[in-house]
Amino acid sequence: MRFASLGSGSKGNATLVQWKQTCLMIDCGFSVKETTRRLQKLSKSPEEISAILVTHEHSDHWKGVMAFSSQYSIPVYLTQGCLRAVRLTTESYTAIELIDSHSSFVIGDLEIMPIPVPHDACEPVQYILSAGKYKLGILTDTGSITTYIKDSYRDCDGLIIEANHDQDLLAAGDYPKFLKQRVASSQGHLNNNQTAELIAHIDQQRVQHIVIAHISQANNNLNLVQERLGKVYKGMGKIHYACQNSGFDWLEISA
């Protein structure tokens, strides 16, 4: 199994996961033109995308989904709540496939388990994708770490997790008060301490790659993230950092 990112942050998100002949895109927060350009940098074409999985309706994850799907006839998988939020119907868009946020499903060679998360969206989910015995967990856009999240992500071989903000930088920053409260709330985004809490809980001897994603350009910096994670991560796997402009290149999970 391999995975990569087209970009990660408040200006747009999209992640690719590939196993054998199946290549899934998780979210599409860029225009069709920009998505295609970023795919080319990863040596992929739109025609190679098997399906798009949507986490939630916020524009940095949703912006390009339906346009990209329509142009290239790609099915879109999302929850009923997300469908209501974007005001679409399955009758109008036959490419839409509704998923149960508590039930696994299969697309081609990959098994997908949606994970309900606390975020200020309508029935938001994140995903754990399995290829044989290997598991990749994707966890961004959640305001807190629930017991269910801890248990679900404990035994991943690869993990993409957000470290959105440093609490002190957010509090002292230029965001208006309502936005600071939203980001820091239990339905907002993970701060560095919460991210470290989950990484301390996972099987560190099993995980091969940890990617820190959705890092706020205004309310965080790499030095703070690295310092915090260095106190809890003792595994042999590599820690990578996704960026807004180029995401991250292909990473492989293997024996």
How many distinct helices? 9
| Category by helix and strand content | alpha/beta
- Give, in spatial order, the strands making up the sheet with the most strands: 6-5-4-3-2-1-14
CATH architecture: 4-Layer Sandwich
Strand content: 25-35%
The shape is globular
Output the helix-strand order.
EEEHEHHEHEEEEEHEHHHEHEE
Q: Which spans of ≥5 residues are poorly predicted at pLDDT below 50?
A: none
Can you summarize the main beta sheet? 7 strands, mixed
Instruction: Give average pLDDT, whole number.
Output: 96
Question: What count of domains describes the coordinates?
Answer: 1
How many beta-strand runs?
14
Percentage of residues assigned to helices: 25-40%
N-to-C terminal Cα separation, in Å?
A: 10 Å
C-alpha-based Rg, rounded: 17 Å
CATH homologous superfamily title: Ribonuclease Z/Hydroxyacylglutathione hydrolase-like
* Text of the CATH class: Alpha Beta
Task: List the SSEs and their pairings.
Elements: E1 2-7, E2 14-19, E3 22-26, H1 32-41, E4 51-53, H2 59-62, H3 65-72, E5 76-79, H4 80-85, E6 96-99, E7 105-107, E8 110-116, E9 125-131, E10 134-139, H5 147-153, E11 158-162, H6 167-172, H7 177-184, H8 192-201, E12 209-213, H9 222-230, E13 238-241, E14 248-252
Parallel strand pairs: 3-4, 4-5, 5-6, 10-11, 11-12, 12-13
Antiparallel strand pairs: 1-2, 1-14, 2-3, 7-8, 8-9, 9-10
